[in-house]
Amino acid sequence: MSTTVSEARPSAPGFLSEVLYLSRRYPLGVAGALIMVTFVLCAIFADYVAPLDPFSTNARSSLAKPSEVNLLGADMMGRDVLSRIIHGARVSLAVAVGATVLGSGIGAAVGLACGYLGGWFDLIVQRVTEVMDALPLLVMALVITASLGPSLRNTIIAIAIPLVPHVARVIRSNVLALREMPFVEAAKATGMSEMRIAVVHVLPNTLAPLIVLATAQLGSTILTEASLSFLGLGVPEPYPSWGRMLSESAAEYVRTAPWLVIFPGLAISLVVFGSNLTGDALRDALDPRQHD
Amino acid sequence: MAPVLEVSGLSTVFHTRRGLVRAVQDVSFAVNAGETLAIVGESGCGKTITALSLMRLVPMPPGEIAAGSVKVDGTDLLKLSDNEMREMRGSKIAMIFQEPMTALNPLLTVGNQIEEMVVLHDKCSREVARKRAVEMLHHVRIPEPDRRAREYPHQLSGGMRQRAMIAMALACRPKVLVADEPTTALDVTIQAQILDLIGDLQREFGTAVVLITHDLGVVAETAKRVVVMYAGRKVEEAPVEEIFARPYHPYMQGLMNSIPRVGSARGLDVAPDERLQEISGIVPPLNDLPPGCAFEPRCTKADARCKTQRPELATKAPDHIAACWLA
Amino acid sequence: MTQPLIEVTDLKKHFPIKKGLLRSTVGHVFAVDGISFSINPGETLGLVGESGCGKSTVGRVVLRLIEPTSGAIKVSGQDIVGIPRGELRPLRRQMQIVFQDPFSSLNPRIRVGDIVGEPLMVHGVGNKQERAERVAKLFNRVGLRPSQMNNYPHQFSGGQRQRISIARALALDPQFIVADEPVSALDVSIQAQVINLMMDLQQERGLSYLFISHNLAVVEHISHRVAVMYLGRIVEYADKKTLFASPQHPYTEALLSAVPLPDPTLRRTKKRVEGDVPSPIKPPPGCHFHPRCPYAEARCKVEPPVLREIGPGHQVACHLR
Question: I need a labelling partner for C126 at 20 to 30 A (CA). Which of B125, B141, B271, C152 fits?
């Protein structure tokens, strides 16, 4: 029934104390966020962080083991693995962020429309999304890149499209629930227009689940990009891509030069792991049903 | 005659991020067979945690029963092992909750759930248990009990679900029934039926009932003794007529004065349309209690001593104790 | 005699039940099935009943938050049912609502000062400065501090949140407020605070309330007139004293008899009514109450009773009275 809550958390604590509070409460989430931030920084400042030029080939260093010169070894063309991984972060994150933003944005708009318009529009869109949801993300992305041709832009599109139905369904159910909430009814009672209610009251309350969803999706988009590139259908040369690094080396060199497989694989795993941790922690943190 | 339930110095705390929450502090009471003890208070007073502590259903961590004893028929439940306590639940002490929909398993039929109880404690065959389950449903006045036994909780109305929960709780004839706001979520006509039912079953089985509620009307109609709790402590205890006639603690007085009464035109001594007496302020947070009397910030009679010294329970009249310096 | 502020005539709301791929209508929920009442300026009409009786729906239909299936709703003599939705806005200034749940009736992501000021913004009242002043005044009036205007809802207790809801309802200076179980989710000692506040406001501003509740004691305290609902219909309608002193309808009797009184010395004869409340999808024929009525006769099963006046200002829908 009623829970009489007396004055709760302070409304505006200092930044540092907030960070400390967060790291005590969500240690895994903060760890995940740190991983993500590290990769993002690598991606942005790749030119400065990478010790060597990722594109320059060097026959003498071909298949060099990890050493002082090549910290994580060199590939069959003598290119430095570490530098390629750092630059690869750019591609992976660009695709991941691009696809996630595109897919979530369109998905949210569709979900909002379905939740508000209802009727035939909703019915048809629902059936379409159900069909799309039944197909695996990778398969759909494959089909799209195969038909559009491999390029950075097409990879982003190919990964964004399967995301749309997924996001749309979540947003739609959120919108439907929010529309029944008393505070929305109260806004109606004051004479607010539906459009304004949607923007001022409903949308902000869907943003939280949307952000959580998007962050969680980040990991799977990275995996999908890696898979696509591995199959040769993703991002083409000259961009270094972790997935392609794996495909170039996995079959032939896994026993002779394992560092070519281990480190890109590790990079993929870490980023996916980091995004999942962050997504989980965000979901818990933004959940209004928190008790002490 | 020795009381069937004897609670002594019960203290339950919670270890939270915001510090130690003293949900229940040094609570003692006793209930005889066939009698009802009501524990009254509002949210945050600790009555639900008290009920859960009796059943040892408090999640540990973060909860911890820090002190005290809970004796049912002489056996201290707090000293038992987990297995032994599981034996006691249902057979010696049972509980019914406010929201029957969450207390009943939605995936099992009502009959099944009662059978489980019976098989577990009476160690009889399924056949016998099934018969007992239908009998119990009949006992709690559910029409067509054999049909209902095969239905799922969502197919029953709120009142019937509550009856089913009572059937489950009393199937093995426990000595003590703990009822946590059993009728708060029900319509008033259904509430009356359920309270009557509990009373009748109590007379038939001789069960001791601990009734947790915030509704003084329910207390007046069903309880023999009343314990008033505030901010985790017992602040008053007396037989029901005595406490309604002469409440000593200002909180209880405030409660009684702040509820509107039905029937101002029916001879009760209340003037219509007068302002309800308010208790200003709100319940203090249990992790940050004031040093003196917990009610002092809201009390109209408080003086300097109340702010610094917490009053102990003292006898104010025969069989009537209250914790107040000024009563 | 003053013209009633609110006059509702034969109001009905039937919700269609849609099933199947093509969403065809297979039945109706007869939530509100022919209700008539009136509320004078400065008065409170208490609407009581148990779950499923339709009282909450009545509240929303009167404000046209839900569209009525049929019937008339007159506000200050003007029938608002026929008005197209787009033109309703100016009327909304006169009628507002306060909800039951203090936790979901305020948008958790908006500051409470903005929540209370929103109606003023929607209707273009004053500039930012003036609105802020008005909100501060409202906060004071409902017993909160203007310094709390920048806080978020979760920082307040249940009782305080109800006060914020009341402040929001008052922002446009309405004449009529629908209060849908405004104190049911609050602790008893807080209920008194909010009830007193609402009654004080009524005195000061001449407000009218439609006070919807299942709590008979509270309704008796705050209302001038009371209507008892059962399965979408009003079964008894009278001024407060008459209804509570001499209820005529068997359901009203049962309701009053069922309310536990905080006086252990009273041993009343309890007129218990058996069974559960039937569903508003398939209400019993004739008088809806006949399956549970201890006095039901053959006529009651067939013929729905009409609300008739049996005394000055006292109406009952029962064949036997």
Answer: C152
Mean pLDDT on C68-93: 89
pLDDT for C259-293, tens place per residue? Answer: 888 888 886 667 677 788 788 888 888 999 999 89
Instruction: Name the token pair of B216.
Output: 């003084």
Consecutive H or E run containing C235: strand C233-239
State the Cα–Cα distance between residues B83 and A41, nearest whole angstrom. Answer: 55
Q: How far apart are the first and last CA of chain A?
A: 17
Structure-block tokens of residue B161: 């679900």
Task: Please give the helix or strand (H or E) that residue B178 lies within, else none.
Answer: strand B176-180
Q: Which residues pair with C142 in a beta bridge?
A: none
CA distances from residue C100 to C37, C119, C138, C179 in whole angstroms, order as listed: 22, 19, 20, 8
Report the interhelical angle of A81-117 vs A242-253 (nearest 10°).
130
Put simply, whether C24 touches A (Cβ < 8 Å) is no
The pLDDT value given to residue A97:
87
Q: Is C107 within 8 Å of A6 when comparing Cβ atoms?
A: no
d(CA B103, CA B94): 13
Cβ neighbors of B104 (< 8 A, separation 6 or more) are: B110, B113, B153, B161, B164, B165, B168
The DSSP bridge pattern shows strands B320-322 and C308-311 to be unpaired
Whether A3 has a pLDDT exceeding 50, the answer reads no
Taking an 8 Å cut-off on Cβ atoms, the answer to whether B284 and A2 are in contact is no
Tell me if chain B has a CB within 8 Å of the CB of A190.
no
Whole-angstrom Cα distance, residue C188 to residue C113? 27
- What does the DSSP assignment read for B9-76? EEEEEEEETTEEEEEEEEEEEEE-TT-EEEEE--TTSSHHHHHHHHTT-S-TTTEEEEEEEEEETTEE
Residue B206: what residue type?
Answer: G
Nearest CA in chain C to A192: C122
The contact set of B with A (CB < 8 A) is: 16-18, 42-44, 98, 181, 184-185, 282-285
Question: A190 and C119 in contact by Cβ < 8 A?
Answer: yes
Inform me whether the C-beta atom of residue C119 falls under 8 Å from chain A C-beta atoms. Answer: yes
pLDDT the model gives residue A219: 79
Residues of C in contact with B276 (CB under 8 A): 192, 195-196, 221
- CA neighbours closer than 13 Å in the CB half-sphere of residue A286: 19
pLDDT (tens digit, 9 = 90+) per residue, B176-223? 999 999 988 888 888 989 999 999 999 999 999 999 998 999 999 999
Q: Tell whether C216 lies on the interface with B, counting CB pairs under 8 A.
A: yes
Asked if B268 lies within 8 A of C191 by C-beta distance, the reply is no
Instruction: Find residues 162-191 of chain C whose CB sits inside 8 Å of chain A.
Output: 165, 168, 171-172, 185-187, 190
Q: How much is the pLDDT for B268?
A: 47
The reply to whether A3 touches chain B by the CB within 8 Å rule is: yes
* Cα–Cα distances in angstroms (integers) from residue C112 to residues A287, B41, B55, B247, C165, in the given order: 20, 30, 41, 39, 9
Mean pLDDT, residues C143-167 taken together = 91
Token readout for C137 is 């005044």
Most trustworthy range by pLDDT among A1-15, A230-244, B135-149: B135-149
Over residues A47-65, the pLDDT tens digits come to 887 888 878 887 887 888 8
How far is the alpha carbon of A188 from chain C, nearest alpha carbon, in Å?
A: 7
Residues 6+ apart with CB under 8 A from A41: A49
C258 touches chain B (CB under 8 A): yes
Report the length, in residues, of chain C.
321
- Closest chain B residue by Cα to residue A7: B285
Main-chain phi, psi angles of A187, to 5 degrees: -65, -40
For the cut 90, the answer to whether the pLDDT of residue B32 exceeds it is yes
Q: What is the pTM of this model?
A: 0.83
Residue type, A29: G
**Beta-carbon separation of A186 and C105 below 8 A:** yes
Whether residue A12 has pLDDT greater than 60 = no
Which residues in chain C touch residue A1, judged by CB atoms under 8 angstroms apart?
185
CB contact under 8 A, C89 and A191: yes
